[in-house]
Amino acid sequence: MLRVFVDASVLVAGAGSRTGASRAVLVMAEIGLYQLVVCRQVLDEAERNLRKKLPAALPIFAQMMDAIGPEIVPDPSQEEVIRWQSVIEAKDAPILAAAVIAAPDWLLTLDVKDFISSARVAEKSGLRIAVPADFVRAIRTLVTEGLG
To answer: For the chain, is the Cβ count within 10 Å smaller at the N or the C terminus?
Structure first.
């Protein structure tokens, strides 16, 4: 089964809005099109950001995570995080390290500046990195071809 690692930005946007690509990513995971993958740090960051910025979305977030049943991979070790600090900003290194260890088919993020704008991150990590909208388009194409 396809495995898709998401960062906290995708979880927050998906829980905070009833529309949009991030919400679609969560809904598609909920219906079983692929396995959502996160690390504990991603879940904690999403919950912290929702509590601070969108507290009304916390119950939606909890319900969606319960319905999706994401695969929770271990947080990376400090050594693994340090390894990626030369490739990406220090604040994002733990997420990149966790994603590399998880070896998903996709890494989805809304952090275009740090994860996507620099082709170096994808090149060095070997990850297929995209924003949710691009991923949704790719899934739509796969589904359309599969039904055609």
So the answer is: C
HSE (side-chain half, CA atoms, 13 Å) at 77: 3
| Phi, psi of 89, deg, nearest 5 | -55, 145
Say if CB 3 and CB 72 are below 8 A apart.
Answer: no
Q: Can you tell me the distance from the alpha carbon of 117 to that of 51, in angstroms, rounded to the nearest whole number? A: 29
Residues 6+ apart with CB under 8 A from 97: 76, 80, 81, 83, 84
**Residue 16 is which amino acid?**
G
- Retrieve residue 21's tokens: 């690509």
Compute the C-alpha angle 106/111/117, nearest 5°.
85
The pLDDT profile of the chain, 148 residues, written as one tens digit per residue, is 999 999 999 999 999 999 999 999 999 999 999 999 999 999 999 999 999 999 999 999 999 999 999 999 999 999 999 999 999 999 999 999 999 999 999 999 999 999 998 789 999 999 999 999 999 999 999 888 876 6
Written as six digits, the tokens of 15 are 């829980």
What are the φ/ψ torsions at residue 67 (nearest 5 degrees)? -70, -35
Q: Where are the domains of the chain?
A: 3-147
